[in-house]
Every structure is written in C-alpha cells, then in structure tokens.
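Posting this for the archive.
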Amino acid sequence: MKKTTTILLLAVALIAASCSSQKKIEKDSKKDSSATNTETNTNSMTQVLIKTSMGDIKIALYNETPQHRDNFIKLVKESYYDGVLFHRIIKGFMIQTGDPDSKTAKPGQRLGSGGPDYRIPAEFVSTLYHKRGAVAAARDNNPAKASSGSQFYIVDGEVYTPEKLNWIAQRAGKTFSAEQQQIYTTVGGAPFLDGDYTVFGEVVSGMEVVDKIAAQQRDQNDRPVEDIKIISAKVIE
C-alpha cells in the first residue's frame, strides 16, 4: 500500500513534460469513443520501429487517437527522435523519452522540459488505457490535459491485486471496466494514470527491452546514470 500511495502522489511529476517554454497552441478536438479489443489487431495500424542503444522496440499507433498518431508519424519522418535519450525511468512504472534537449545533455543534467512549440489536444478513449506496454503522451500540468508535442512514455507497469486496484479507484475517483480489472490484475500496468494522459499506441514487440531499460541504475531525477538513447525511429512501410 505504501508503494501505491507513493506512486499516486508522484505520478503527475514523474510523467509531466515541463512545457513552460512552449507556446500554448491547441486545436479543437473531438474525442473519439471508438472501441478496441484487449488483443488489438495491429495489422491496420501504423507501426514504428524504435532502435535503441539497448535493443529494438516496435510500437503500433492507435487509429482512435488520430492527432497523436499523425503527430508522432510526422516527427518520426523528420528524424526528430533520432538521438534523444530516455531521460526518466522507473522500474515497475514506465520509461520516458522525446525531449530534444537530451541530444546534447551533459551527464547529470536535469531533462524533461524540451519539445516543439505546441501541444496536442487530449484524446481520451475509455478502451485505451495504461496496460503494460501502452505508449502514452507526457504532458505538463494544464487544465485541458493536453499532451506534450513530442515527449512520450512506455508503461513497464506492475500487476495489482484486486484490493489495491479497488483502493486506487476509490482514492482517485476512477472506475475500471471488467476488462481493465482483468488486465491490471494479470498483465499489469499503471491504472492510476487512466483518464489523465492520452494513450495512443502499444508495444508490438520488444517489451524485454523496455524492462531492461526500466531496470537500469538512475540518479535522483530518475535519469539513467548511463545514457540510453534512441538511435533511430522509422515508420514501417
């Protein structure tokens, strides 16, 4: 319980992308309520191969979150992510990347405030949640819960007991569907983030790499002591 309480209290700080230097350019957005199955058919989804210094991770982008999908594809094609570091890692929680300032960061430098001069409007879909392997957008503390233009994280996650999941639901005022309860108590994830950060994709292969990255030694700011970088990110045609 102590571990869960700590994670709940720190979740926003851990996932936040400080956007104080970003222009608050936000477009109107319609929230897509399309449903998706637990076992997603990724054949109709755009996939991206992320080559890291610790191995390859392949992700699929949800069509139910088109603005996040299209922005991510745009940045990948511009080679925006090539050379960025995983600047925040927490075993049993997530690994975060996408800060362009990390490309030239000095050892020990605090990161997490870089990105393009825009945000992406939130695209919350109830059937897309923070299961293990979920890809979601980081953000700063803005009322609209709009996402960072570039920073994202991949859920490493942990498995919850029904009692802990129920405690989170009561504590955070969330309601978990039967599907979510089944996944969070068997596969795992980060349920306390649901409804607060946009989930826009999932890992297709390479979760062992995610786990490996998450398990590395980190400093007081949760930055890996030894740099872990994205070598390249490419859309799989």
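The beta strands are 46-52, 55-61, 86-90, 94-97, 119-120, 134-137, 147-148, 152-155, 199-205, 230-236. The longest helix spans residues 2-15.
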